[in-house]
Amino acid sequence: MKKDLLSCRDIDRTDMENIFDLAAKLKAGRGKPNQPRPLEGKSVATIFAKSSTRTRVSFDVGIYELGGHTLYLDQSKTQMGRGETVPDTAHVLERYLAGIVIRTFAQKDVEELAANAKIPVINALTDDFHPCQALTDVFTMKEHAGKTDGLKLAYLGDGASNMANSLTLACKLAGVHLAIAAPDEFKPREDLLNLQHGPGSAVWTKSVKEAMQDADFVYTDVWVSMGFEEEAKRRMAILEPYRLDMKALRMGKPGVKVLHCLPAHRGDEITDDVMDSSASIVFDQAENRLHVQKAIMALLMA
User: How far apart are CA 205 and CA 178, in angstroms?
Assistant: First the structure.
């Protein structure tokens, strides 16, 4: 693997398989004696500019279980929040730490941090990409289907979101066919749709029915992500036809499974009956954040 994980463009198919193999081993061995502690004696900073539940808890627990120490930093309360340059921050932190996990707004800030730090930097979410989540999603599909090659994933909603961007890259690596159903106003990035990045593929359609046809898995995410609250009313009106309800779910294959990266805004992008149905594997997906991120950190920071 490269030094950093800033998006799924930073890994190839072999890297993905190595992450999944290690994640499966760490998951199977969790709680058993004599588990590997590759971060023993090492400190990792987790820098957050955005609110978080799953990301913060899973990274904190993961660092602890790998033997490391977490140093949580609220970005607004660091000198970065008072005008210190990203390169200066990077040069200081690399003297103290084994790695940096950062959840912030601008992708360019994460890239600049990585470019100036000698230690690994992991993107824990920006407005453009959420690679740890997308890798977790593909790992979860592999757990349930026994493979990734040849699967079809339907994504309903905001096709211009960080999750749509990240799933486009991760699915291509994994050999998954991704069909994004989204309106014109939130269509996916053409550069990512057209990018050759593995045996999988990604297409955009405005039709939920077309995206759901032969889908093994269906995915949705919040319609109003952090940083876009002022657009909430407009977004809700435009995306309402893309709600994942039972009507949409029945358009997929028999046994289609439901994914959601959480938090879910029940009644908006997903209905209660879908979220709580036997088709839902969203809490398996949430748990797997821990195992996949542990594998990523072990491979990058050990």
Answer: 11
**Tell me, what CATH number does 39's domain have?**
3.40.50.1370
This prediction's pTM: 0.97
Considering only residues 283 and 224, tell me which one the structure prediction assigns the higher pLDDT: 283
State how far the Cα of 192 lies from the Cα of 147, in Å rounded to an integer: 23
- Considering its fold, how many domains does the chain have in total? 2
User: From residue 129, how far is each of 53, 111, 251, 255 by CA, in Å?
Assistant: 18, 12, 28, 29
**Burial class of residue 177 in the structure, from the number of CB atoms within 10 Å of its CB (0-12 exposed, 13-18 middle, 19+ buried):** buried
The residues, any chain, with a CB within 8 Å of residue 238's CB and separated by 6 or more, are 183, 185, 186
Q: Identify the three-state secondary structure at position 291.
A: helix
Question: How many other CB atoms sit within 10 Å of the CB of residue 48?
Answer: 20
Residue 252 clears pLDDT 80, i.e. is over it: yes
Mark whether 150 and 267 lie in a shared domain. yes
Measured CA to CA, the distance from residue 22 to residue 14 in angstroms comes to 12
Determine the pLDDT at residue 228. 67
Write out the residue range of the structural domain in which residue 59 sits: 8-129+286-301
Q: Is the pLDDT of residue 226 over 80?
A: no
Which of the residue ranges 5-14, 77-86, 221-230 would you say has the lowest mean pLDDT?
221-230
Alpha-carbon dihedral of residues 94, 97, 99, 101, nearest 10 degrees?
A: -100
Residue matched to tokens 């930073």: 10
Helix (H/G/I), strand (E/B), else coil: 149: coil
Angle between helix 282-301 and 131-145 (nearest 10): 120
Residue 3 lies in a domain: no
Number of Cβ within 10 Å of residue 136's Cβ equals: 29
